From TrEMBL, chain A:
InterPro entries in UniProt: NuoE-like, NuoE_dom, NuoE_N, Thioredoxin-like_sf
UniProt name for this protein: NADH-quinone oxidoreductase subunit NuoE
GO molecular function: 2 iron, 2 sulfur cluster binding; active transmembrane transporter activity; inorganic cation transmembrane transporter activity; metal ion binding; monoatomic cation transmembrane transporter activity; NADH dehydrogenase activity
Disordered: annotated segments: 173-202
Keyword Metal-binding: yes
Keywords, sorted A to Z: 2Fe-2S, Iron, Iron-sulfur, Metal-binding, NAD, Oxidoreductase, Translocase
NCBIfam families, A to Z: nuoE_fam, PRK07539.1-4, PRK07539.1-5
Length: 202, 694
């Protein structure tokens, strides 16, 4: 964690698309009347999605006005949660887990790959395709080391394979998510070792 | 009473109401609890942890500010365990707090410094780098040194809860939490200076006062503010003869412990543009002269024309000055007196209830419906507005507004623009009338904007009519309120500084001056007039600042400001309060009443008092209710019988006085700080495109 500030270059304005407005109204309807401000997190999240993975300052203001709450209150929420990116991110936004289990399994080598292919943290490649950020535990320690790219987990990575994924994504190729070895989900490597058959099974 | 809860604090038994916090119970029992984030006028945050106490059978120390008492609780505030717990908290707080007390403006009046004396350990175990935080812009009044911030969030809570302008917040989290405004915009609240007092450390300090003085070298004088008609209690700090700063004093029935920015930061205006010697205009140019020379010139001018003399008193005049001028005028045989320089049609005879804020500021807390007529209390009396907001926050407080629909920091139903809506309500029509009627203790506030027009008296009559119709006035509740904007006004009306038998009112005096019937006009600090209408009359200006009046004057006599004299001012409630002398008037300047006493002798009409006590005795004869300092006298009920209405209600809308909040009087207009605030406020209005604040 470090001090997070809104980005220097900001778009002039922001407003929800028609679909997002009706979506937002549905979210607000989940809360009692007069408590519309409770919908702040889903709305900011939707705004971040619409804006291309980051939350511009006009979007924070727009959501605050949408929810009839002070701008400052929305800014507090947006800066509190690290899931809100205050600066532009790449089309494929890599969140690299650096917490102990992943670190023990070689997260540092993945970081080196990021530096090599993308550059320093929080910088977007010139083509706008990639950016990366080290984050705390993403809860997939069994498949360490792992990264999250946009909404998907990429697990059981090696430095070589991770580099290939990044380069494929850069080229616009489709990369299947999940464990990157032959392993299925979080089963043991090489297949199941217990519970191979269930009693009474054929 | 049986519903009280018994609590034992360090062996002292106290009985407190259920729901009281442990901290409050401890105070009741006389045990002092250290605190940073807790403040009795703000919501409870419970984040500084300094107020830890032990509760018997509890697993660990508890934050006493946030924990309600339970029956038969045994609280320990003095044991070694408690001391150790607080020392632990203090050590954590000091980890990231810079040790820059020698260059910190809070030094000497810092909560952290004081409490570190009691709970600090003598050496630091912290080896790493302290955190550093970028300073934030908060405008021309509040200076920030954010590295010193201990994140108590008092300022955030004040802005949101009391000021009603939620513009301060905490961004980031944990170690990186920072207090700021949205994108570092300047504070826009008229009460923003209070965050300086609230800040327990030196993170938010006074920008204009920065590095000018230390608290222990200042002489502190407890006095009264005159920037608005609230009569806020203040403390004026002086070094030598110079006012260094102004701070609020607590008065639960008036300003609680808040102060408007104008009252707090106007002090630099006391030292600039001052008139320090009598002046006479010779061939168009003002020339400094001696007192006797100035008096001689006036005496020659007045000879034979005594009854064609008029006197107008301004917004900052004290009761003593007005009384002396009134007596002088009556000895000269002139009936032309006027204390309502804004032209407000306030009734000049008899019934005080017709022009006072009868409910009383503190009793706003008990009201249950409010109608505001032609007033913007946020600009005219920011501290009183905070009181209204406090009542609104408590809930079930419908507020209606007739006049301009402006942001008052609380929502109000806009009922209409002008007198026709008022007349309609007074005749018992409209949904808001039924709200008022249903309410047990409804109140209305009528502002000067509704009265300072030709049909002002008719508006006042309609308002009194409405008050009577909706049962606002009864034996135990008086909901009829006039909100004044000038500190001098109520005293002026009380002592009858109004047209005497056959005298002209403001309009008459100005018309007379234009036509040449009124030969001489005395202006007692009256600067907010249309000076061009004084025509060729001979103008004697008694005042403090080189403002509009002095520019027009033929003779200028230098007077004393509110910080330079002991004088009585009466606030909008009718509460007489006395200012104390904190500094001396500059140069030749004298107290107003002494000037008129000396002048009277030269004119051969010697006033019968040689000291201020005799003058006050004379004043209390005229207005006995001024004698009881800081007391409210029941003014009775407002009534329409004494009003002689000449102009019927017109349907022009009530337009709030467009005067700049930061420029309402000569002292404020001489202040650089106020000018800066005004520029900021104007810039805000342009960017918001509302044109209503400010």
């Amino acid at each position: 964690m470090s001090v997070r500030r809104v980005a220097e270059n900001q778009p002039d304005d922001f407003s929800f698309t028609k679909e997002n407005i009706s979506w937002a109204k549905k979210q607000i309807a989940k809360y009692p009347k007069g408590r519309q401000a409770s919908a702040i997190i889903p709305l900011l999240w939707q705004a971040q999605k619409q804006a291309g993975g980051w939350l511009p300052e006009p979007a924070i203001r727009y959501v605050a006005e949408f929810l009839d709450m002070p701008n400052m209150r929305a800014m507090e929420v947006a800066t509190f949660y690290t899931m809100f990116n205050l600066e532009p991110v790449g089309e494929h936004f890599v969140q690299l887990c650096g917490t102990t289990p992943c670190w023990l399994r070689g997260a540092d080598t993945l970081k080196d790959v990021c530096r090599k292919v993308i550059g320093e943290q929080n910088t977007v490649t010139d083509d706008g395709k990639l950016s990366w950020l080290e984050v705390e535990c993403l809860g997939a320690c069994v498949n360490a080391p792992m990264v999250q790219i946009n909404d998907d987990f990429y697990e059981d990575l090696t430095a070589e394979w991770f580099e290939k994924i990044l380069l494929d994504l850069k080229r616009g190729e489709n990369v299947p998510s999940g464990p990157q070895t032959s392993r299925k989900a979080s089963e043991p490597e090489g297949g199941r070792t217990v519970l191979k058959s269930i009693e009474g099974d054929a | 009473m049986s519903d009280l809860v018994k609590v034992n604090v360090d062996g002292v038994e106290v009985e407190v109401a259920p729901g009281t916090t442990i901290l409050q119970a401890c105070e009741e029992a006389g045990a002092e609890i250290p605190r940073f984030c807790y403040h009795e006028r703000l919501s409870i945050a419970g984040n500084c942890r300094m107020c830890l106490v032990n509760v018997k059978n509890g697993p660990k120390p508890v934050a006493s500010c946030a924990m309600p008492v339970a029956p038969d609780m045994e609280v320990d505030t003095k044991s070694e365990a408690v001391q150790a717990a607080r020392e632990g908290v203090m050590e954590f707080l000091l980890i990231n707090h810079p040790l820059d007390c020698p260059i910190c403006d809070q030094g000497g009046e810092c909560d952290l410094q004081d409490q570190a004396f009691g709970y600090g350990v003598d050496e630091s175990r912290f080896q790493d780098n302290k955190r550093a935080v970028e300073n934030k812009n908060m405008g021309p009044l509040v200076k920030t040194i954010m590295t010193r911030c201990i994140q108590c969030t008092r300022c955030v809570r004040f802005a949101t809860e009391v000021a009603g302008v939620p513009e301060i917040g905490a961004i980031g989290r944990g170690e990186d939490m920072e207090i700021t405004t949205y994108l570092e915009a300047s504070l826009s609240s008229e009460l923003s200076g209070n965050v300086i007092d609230l800040c327990p450390v030196g993170a938010l300090t006074s920008k204009p006062y920065a590095f000018t003085a230390r608290p222990w070298e200042l002489k502190k004088t407890e006095t009264i503010d005159v920037m608005d008609a609230v009569g806020s209690n203040i403390r004026v700090d002086t070094r030598g003869r110079e006012v260094m700063r102004i701070l609020p004093r607590n008065h639960d029935d008036v300003n609680e412990e808040w102060l408007s920015d104008k009252s707090r930061f106007v002090w630099d205006g006391l030292n600039t543009q001052r008139i320090d010697s009598p002046y006479i205009r010779k061939e168009g140019k003002l020339e400094a002269v001696s007192w006797s020379e100035a008096f001689e010139v006036i005496a020659q001018k007045l000879k034979g024309q005594e009854s064609n003399t008029a006197a107008i008193s301004g917004d900052l005049a004290c009761a003593e000055g007005m009384m002396a001028l009134k007596d002088l005028m009556s000895q000269l045989g002139s009936p032309h007196l006027e204390c309502r320089q804004d032209g407000a049609q306030l009734p000049s005879n008899g019934n005080r209830a017709n022009y006072l804020f009868n409910t009383g500021i503190a009793n706003i807390d008990d009201a249950d419906a409010l109608l505001i007529i032609g007033s913007n209390p946020r600009r005219e009396a920011p501290v009183l507005n905070a009181r209204i907001r406090k009542r609104w926050v408590a809930g079930n407080f419908p507020i209606g507004i007739i006049g301009q629909d402006e942001d008052l920091t609380y929502p109000a139903t806009h009922l209409g623009n002008g007198a026709e809506t008022l007349a309609e309500l007074a005749s018992g029509k409209g949904s808001f009338f039924s709200i008022l009627k249903k309410a047990k203790r409804p109140m209305l506030i009528i502002g000067q904007s509704a009265l300072a027009r030709e049909d002002g008296l008719a508006v006042l009559e309609a308002a009194i009519e409405l008050a009577t119709q909706s049962k606002m006035v009864s034996d135990d509740w008086n909901g009829f309120n006039v909100l004044h904007s000038a500190a001098a006004r109520v005293a002026g009306l009380d002592i009858g500084f109004t047209p005497q038998e056959g005298g002209h009112d403001l309009e008459g005096i100005l018309a007379g001056a234009t036509s040449g019937d009124v030969k001489t006009v005395f202006l007692l600090g009256a600067d907010e007039l249309d000076m061009s209408r004084l025509g060729d009359s001979y103008v004697v200006y008694v005042g403090t600042h080189g403002d509009a009046g002095a520019h027009r004057a033929d003779v200028i006599l230098p007077g004393a400001t509110y910080t330079e004299k002991q004088a009585i001012y009466v606030n909008t409630e009718g509460r007489a309060q006395m200012t104390e002398q904190a500094a001396f008037p500059p140069g030749e300047a004298r107290e107003d009443w002494k000037i008129f006493r000396a002048l009277s002798e030269v004119l051969g009409e010697k006033l019968p008092y040689d000291n201020v006590e005799t003058l006050r005795a004379r004043m209390f004869e005229t207005a006995p209710f001024l004698a009881g300092l800081d007391e409210l006298t029941d003014a009775g009920m407002p009534d329409v019988s004494s009003l002689t209405i000449k102009v019927p209600l017109s349907d022009a809308p009530f337009m709030n006085n467009a005067q700049d909040f930061y420029f309402t009087n000569p002292i404020a207009r001489a202040s650089k700080i106020m000018a800066e605030c005004s520029i900021q406020a104007q810039a805000r209005n342009i960017s918001e495109g509302t044109g209503t604040d400010g």
